Amino acid sequence: MASRYNEKRRKAAEFALNKELDSGYGKTNFESIVSADTRDAAMGKGEEELFEKKLSKEEKKAMAKAAREAKRIAKEKKNGGKKTKKVKGEDESGEEKKEDVESILNKVVSTMSIEEQKRETAIEKLNRENIAVTYEQKRGNLHANTRDILVTGVSVTFHGKTLVEDSEVRINYGNRYGFIGPNGSGKSTVMKAIAARAIPIPDALDIYFLDCEYPARDDITALQAVMESNNEVAILEKQAEELNQLMAEIDDEDSQMRIQDQMESIYERLDALDVNSAEARATTILFGLGFTTHMQHMKTREFSGGWRMRVALARALFLKPEFLLLDEPTNHLDMEAVIWLEDYLSKWDKILFFVCHSQDFMNNVCTDIVRLDMTYKKLKYYSGNYDTYVKTRRDQDMVQLRQYETEQREIAEIKDFIARFGHGTVKMVRQAQSREKLLQKKLEAGLTPKPEVDSEWDWSFPDAGQLPVPVLAIENVSFGYPGSVELYSNVDFGIDLQTRVALVGPNGAGKTTLVKLIVDELQPTKGAIKRNMHLKISRFTQHFEEKLDLSMTAMDYFKQKVMPKEHIDKIRSLLGRYGCSGAQQSQVMSQLSAGQKARIVFAIIAYERPHLLLLDEPTNPLDMESIDALARCLNKFKGGVLIISHDMRLISQCAEQIYICDHKKVELYKGDIMKFKLHTKKENNAKLAQHING
Known about the structure:
The protein is α/β, with parallel strands linked by helices. Helices cover 50% and strands 16% of the residues. Residues 62-98 are annotated as: Disordered.
C-alpha cells in the first residue's frame, strides 16, 4: 500500500510541472492525468479515498489546477485553438457559476466557522452571568496574520464589581501561562471572558476552554467521547472536497483566490488535528490520565464526576487547539495522572493558559506567569516559571517600595514647607507657591503605587491536649463494597498525635475509603479499628461544601450552627483570621468562591479543636497564600495529621512519612515525595510504552 501511495504522490507532484509545460501537450495527455479510469486502475475505490485524504494541500491544489488547465485547453481546441474572451452578458452560465461560487463559499464559511457558533454561545453565557468586558485598542501593532494576542484598555466586571480595569492582555503563541491570584479575585471569570472572545483574538486561533465535566451518557464510551470531539474532521474534509470540486469548475480568478484561501485554512486545521493517528492519540491520552483499556470502553454514565472530568480533559488535549484554557486541571486527578499531565503539558507548543495552585506543577510547565493584582485591578506579566516569578516579583517590589517611600517622603517635605512658609514673607510665599506647583506636577505625572502585599493568614488549630497511645489502630482490616472487588486485605496501620502521614496512590485504590473507615462511616468486613474513647477527629473532604448551609451567610451560620454560645466579636475574629472578613461575612455563602468557602470550613475545624486531622485533597480549592497558611498551621499543630493530596509542595512541607495505597495494602514508602515522583514518572513511561506496543 505504501508503494502505491508513493507512486500517487509522485504523480501528483508532476501536475504542477505539467501545468507549466502544457502548451505542447495534447488533450489525451491531460485526460490521462485527470481520468478517473486511470486512477481506478492504479488502486481500488477505498484505497483511492484513503489516498485522497493523505494528499498534501499543495498536491491537491496542483491536481485542481491541472484539471482546470485540461478544461481550458479542451475549450480552446473546440474553438479552433483560439483563446476565448468573456463578453459581458454573453455567458450567462458564467454569471450563474459566480453565483454558485458565492453560494457555496458562504455555505462553507458558515459551516466552517464552528468557532463563531461557539463564540455566540459563550457571549450569551457571559451576559447571563453578568460578566461585562470592554477594551480600547484592537490587536495593538501586531501583524494581521499573527497568532499573538495584544489588547489594551481591557476591563472586566462581574455583577458590577470591577475585576480588571484598564489593563493589557498580552499572550504570545508558543508560551505556557500560569494564571495566579487570590481566591475570589476573578481568575475564572477573566478566563471565561477570554474564551468567549469578548476581546479581539485572531481568527486563526481556535479556542478550547475546559471548565466542566463530560456529561453522564448511556450511549457513548470514554474513548468514543474523546473521538467524537473530532467531528470537526468530517466537516472539514467535506468542505475541502466541495472546494476542490468547485476550484476545478470555475475560471474566475477572484473566486479561485477566495477558494484557495479557504482551502489553506482547512488544510492547516486538518494538519493540526493529525487525523491519521487519531485513535492511537486518544487511547494514549486516556491511558495517561488513568483509564485502563477496559475503562476506555465503559459508558460515561458509569464514571463518577471526577472521572468524567478526566474525560473532558482528555477531549481538550486530543483536540490540540491553538489556544487551550484550563481551570484547575489537576483537581480530581491522582498523583500518577498529575505527573503524566505535567510532563504532557510541558511539551505544549501552542498557547496554554491555566489556573493551578500547585507550585511544583507550575514550575515544571510554565514559561510565564500572569498575576491578577486585586489591589490595582491589573494583569501583571512575569517571564519564567513560578520560582522565577517569586524572585522577580520580590526584587521588583523592593525597588517599587523604595521608589514609593522616596516619593512619599518628598511629598511630605513639600507639604510641610508649604504649610510653614505659605503665609510668611513675600519671598517665602513665592517659594511655597513654587513648591506647590512642583507638587502638582508630581501628582499629575502619577505617583508610584505601593506594592501589593499578599495576605499571610495566621491560621492555627488549637491544641486539644494529649491522649495515651494507641490513639488509633487499624488491625488486620479488610474491606470491600458489596458486589465489588475487595479494596483492602489484612491492613495494619496506626496513627498517634505525632503522626504526619501523606497517603498517595491511584484513584480507586481506596484512599478516601480508608478515611471513611477511620471515622466509622464504613465498617470493616474483617478486622478492627480501635480508637481512643476521647479521640476527637475533624475531617476536610473533597465535598467540603456539604459541611455548610450555602443559603446562609457565614456570620449567621456560625451564630446559629457552629458557635451559638459565643459572642459575635469572637465569631467575627475567627472568620477574619481565615480570610473571611468585612462584607464576605454578611454575604450568602453560595456567592463565595470555592476557596473562600474552604477557608470557612477550616475556621469550623479550628473551633472543633480536634486531636486528629484527616484532610482529603485540601489544596484543590485553595490559592497559593491559603496553601502556605495551611502548611504553616499544620506544622504548628500538636495533633496527628493524615493528608491525601497530589500537591507535592504541601506534602514535602508537612508529611514526615509517605504511605502508598495500592494492591489492597497500605505500605510505607522508603523515601520522600520527590523520590516518589521520579519513581512514578519512570513507571508511567514504562506502562505507556507497554500500552503503545500492545
